[in-house]
């Protein structure tokens, strides 16, 4: 019947990083030398006797975790890899003599942990991508205020604040702003977080960014304004937030310029863009009520907003443009057709009847 080998001491931590832990138990050799030769694990040259083994067990420090054997052999050092970052693990060892089969008790338990994952450009983006705000909140506490990673772009050149806006997550937008993310930082295309929020129809983020100093007058490399981006979203609340801020402008010339700013090769104003996008009547009226010029046109074709509304068969937009003074008598400079002829081409009787009812109309 076999006895018990002396209990080994606790394993010793050699090194740890975010994915591995290295341990050693050199003390086992010293302990072994004090035994009689018939009970030893190693011979005089330091080689392990046949059948002499050291067992290394591991378990994660959490409720319900069980021990698992991760190493069996005679080495006095072992590196455990593919571990979770920033996680606690427990380790214990047991010895067995190959000469007489004696085993030791398990050693005392070593509690150690992997380190947090190194901070790099992807760290913040990963936290933004995780559902809920807890992981980002924890990360930002570690980083501290105005950390450079808050302005580090991803592989596509986008910034963390832009990602949060694109994901329509107001909690993460707020956390990043509170942590010191620059609301006016931009990338090579000239895009800002406010442009992302505006183009995605994220009205709450637009309001929060503006409240924290986002520049309402910034333009991208194509000259596209915040209001144009908002119109692209076809979201009434988002457009309303931008117009409300423009209405705070004390210089009427600047306000009028922004409301009617012409951009791109065709020189579309926000209103013309809204007509092209078939925005609803509430958006069209919002723009007109706040100073949008009903006589705007595509400068490359001289097609007016009213003509375009008729061509697109949009009765409500046509009615609103007429109400706000759009010229109903000017024929198309491309086809020479009158407004009535353009309406007739749509085969929409409600639009045709309305256009034919306008003063001075010649029925088709």
Automatic annotation (TrEMBL):
Pfam families registered for this protein in UniProt: Ank_2 (PF12796)
The alphabetized UniProt keywords are: ANK repeat
Every copy of the Fibronectin type-III domain together lies at 7-118
Q: Name one GO biological process term.
A: regulation of apoptotic process
| InterPro entries xref list | Ankyrin_rpt, Ankyrin_rpt-contain_sf, FN3_dom, FN3_sf, Ig-like_fold
In terms of superkingdom, the source organism counts as Eukaryota
Annotated ANK repeats reside at: 156-188, 189-221, 266-299, 301-333
Q: Name one GO cellular component term.
A: nucleus
What is the official name of this protein in its record? Fibronectin type-III domain-containing protein
Q: Which organism is it from?
A: Rotaria sordida
Q: What is the lineage of its organism?
A: Eukaryota, Metazoa, Spiralia, Gnathifera, Rotifera
